[in-house]
């Protein structure tokens, strides 16, 4: 089956065309600045060169139609016609409590996703626009929704409730949901394979460390806790997001700096985390490691705080599962920063963990980086959310 995987943001659209039998990527790309000046399509067919084309895209429908044109182009396309696309798989951000698994999209599902818009006001409407555009341009082609939140729906009540009046959960479903579920699911399954253990009988911690970052605890094949909450702001310190803070800081800052709630939320989402803590030096961990290596205090404090917070979550989740078999690193920082992995693991001696420096240098492959005699295995597993979405979509279409 040929599956078009779509990840629609408010002004962008990422896509991959994946053959579900061979799991090969036939083509991939990105539409940027949708609805703005200077919008552009970046398209790379497998084995071919990356092409960048400036093209006006007034909306997501236009973007999807340009993607289809690129995929079916006589010279650089990979399909002879649109009818070769068997299904579309959409990455959807927030399924609230309504979706504990992926689903084929129909009118009822669209209504249910729309009802979750309040929970993800920036993401869900964009996701829905993407679905709508595909339905109009590819009528009759089955479409599936794969939710970032679904994998975490197995969390027990004690993990998902906040210590605030219960009526707010009852009225507004204010609770912890978690995100990056597709990645946590993909990586933890692969970790069980690498451990040679049954997924239903393993305790795994996944550290998804990208621009956004979250940790999750997967016990016997089910997510039992994860660090993001009602929104992706909770948990680890991230590229530009604060992660956990004392909520009273909001009021304190509002008075001291004469800021509105919206302004403070923007600071916590866009100007905090590594970016804010480094004195706005950078949100990219490469720059901060470089600064730290040069002895600059802004780099040193940021990297130290970042790694310490990851290590604290690993400790908490080891307690939550009463043990751990494997700790996995994934996403931009998790996959590419041996320094971060090493510094986090320095806190984990109590788990009998030691890191093999040579293994830790490897890149771009699934690898165990702990020494052979480590009691708990530490792994690097490059995440592949698009492949996971293609697999889920193919399974749903097959029925
Ligand atoms: P997103 O959450 O946007 O999907 P990614 O998973 O692509 O993010 O992660 C992006 C981040 O990964 C960058 O901001 C950068 O901090 C980090 N990163 C990428 N490559 C490296 C590297 N070689 N060394 C350290 N960090 C890296």
Q: Name the overall outline.
A: globular
- Main sheet strand line-up: 5-4-3-2-1-6-8-7
User: Could you name the ranges where pLDDT drops below 50 across 5 or more consecutive residues?
Assistant: none
Q: What structural category do the secondary elements indicate?
A: alpha/beta
Bound molecules: adenosine-5'-diphosphate
Tally of structural domains: 2
Order of helices and strands: EEEEEHEEHHEHHHEEEHHHHHEHHHEEH
Average pLDDT, rounded to a whole number, is 96
Structural commentary:
The chain has 399 residues and is of the alpha/beta class. The protein folds into 2 domains: 2-147, Nucleotidyltransferase, domain 5 (2-Layer Sandwich); 198-380, ATPase, nucleotide binding domain (Nucleotidyltransferase, domain 5, 2-Layer Sandwich), CATH 3.30.420.40. 38% of the residues lie in helices and 19% in strands. The protein has 15 helices and 14 strands. It has helices at 60-71, 107-115, 124-137, 157-160, 166-172, 181-195, 248-257, 261-270, 273-277, 285-293, 297-321, 331-336, 338-345, 357-360, 385-398, and strands spanning 2-8, 13-19, 25-32, 40-45, 51-54, 87-92, 103-104, 143-147, 203-209, 213-219, 222-226, 326-330, 367-368, 377-380. It has an 8-stranded mixed beta sheet, sandwiched between helices. The longest helix is centred in the last third of the chain and has 25 residues, at 297-321. The radius of gyration is 21 Å and the shape is globular. It starts with a strand and ends with a helix. The model has no long low-confidence stretch (mean pLDDT 96).
């Amino acid at each position: 089956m040929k599956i078009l995987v779509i990840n629609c943001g408010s002004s962008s659209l990422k896509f991959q065309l994946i053959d579900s039998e061979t799991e090969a990527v036939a083509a991939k790309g990105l539409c940027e600045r949708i609805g703005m000046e200077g919008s552009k399509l970046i398209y790379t067919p497998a084995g071919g060169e990356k092409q960048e084309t400036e093209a006006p895209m007034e909306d997501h429908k236009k973007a999807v139609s340009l993607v289809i044109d690129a995929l079916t182009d006589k010279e650089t396309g990979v399909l002879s016609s649109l009818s070769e696309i068997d299904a579309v798989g959409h990455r959807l951000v927030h399924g609230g409590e309504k979706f504990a698994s992926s689903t084929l999209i129909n009118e009822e599902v669209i209504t249910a996703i729309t009802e979750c818009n309040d929970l993800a006001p920036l993401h869900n409407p964009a996701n829905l626009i993407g679905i709508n555009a595909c339905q109009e341009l590819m009528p009759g082609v089955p479409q599936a929704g794969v939710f970032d939140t679904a994998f975490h729906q197995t969390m027990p009540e004690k993990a998902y409730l906040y210590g605030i009046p219960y009526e707010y959960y009852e009225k507004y479903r204010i609770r912890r949901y978690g995100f990056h579920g597709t990645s946590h699911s993909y990586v933890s399954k692969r970790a069980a394979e690498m451990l040679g253990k049954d997924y239903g009988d393993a305790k795994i911690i996944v550290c998804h460390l990208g621009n956004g970052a979250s940790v999750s605890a997967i016990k016997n094949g089910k997510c039992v806790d994860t660090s993001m909450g009602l929104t992706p702001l909770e948990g680890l310190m991230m590229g530009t997001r604060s992660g956990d803070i004392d909520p009273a800081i909001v009021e304190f800052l509002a008075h001291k700096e004469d800021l509105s709630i919206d302004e403070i939320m923007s600071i916590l989402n866009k100007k905090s985390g590594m970016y804010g803590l480094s004195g706005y030096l950078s949100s990219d961990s490469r720059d901060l490691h470089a600064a730290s290596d040069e002895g600059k205090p802004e780099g040193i404090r940021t990297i130290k705080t970042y790694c310490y917070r990851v290590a604290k979550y690993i400790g908490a989740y080891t307690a939550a599962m009463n043990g751990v078999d494997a700790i996995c690193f994934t996403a931009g920082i998790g996959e590419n920063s041996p320094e971060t992995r090493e510094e986090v693991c320095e806190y984990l001696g109590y788990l009998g963990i030691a890191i093999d420096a040579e293994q830790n240098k490897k890149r771009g492959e699934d690898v165990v980086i702990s020494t052979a005699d480590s009691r708990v295995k530490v792994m690097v597993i490059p995440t592949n959310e698009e492949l996971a979405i293609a697999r889920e979509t193919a399974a749903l279409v097959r029925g």
